[in-house]
Amino acid sequence: MGTLEVIDIGRETLGTALRIATPVMMIALVTGLSIALFQALTQIQEMTLTFVPKILVIFLAIMVLLPFMLTTLVGYTEGLFDRIAA
């Protein structure tokens, strides 16, 4: 295994990690911004108002996106195993 192959595997690994994490992070970002906007408009400065909804939304997003995440990860792993076998 040469240096270029290792760099290519590393690039694929980072790309796969971003593909898996980006949807959940974007949902968390939108939720956080909406809650911050709501707090700014109503002047409610409750700390639990920030964390509890965001945790619930992230949990639901992970449950909904789990098939996509597993499919992506299995595809990456199969490609990696094919490289090892070759």
Describe this structure in words.
This protein has 86 residues and is mostly helical. It has a domain of 57 residues. 92% of the residues lie in helices and 0% in strands. The chain contains two helices and no strands. Helix 1 runs antiparallel to helix 2. The chain is elongated and about 60 Å long. The model has no long low-confidence stretch (mean pLDDT 92).
Keyphrases for this structure?
single chain; 86 residues; mainly alpha
Briefly characterize the structure:
The chain is an all-alpha fold. It has two helices and no strands. Helix 1 runs antiparallel to helix 2 (47-85).
Q: What's the SSE blueprint?
A:
Elements: H1 3-42, H2 47-85
Helix pairs in contact: 1-2
Order of helices and strands: HH
Fraction in helix: over 70%
Major beta sheet summary:
none
- The whole-angstrom Rg is 19 Å
Beta percentage is under 5%
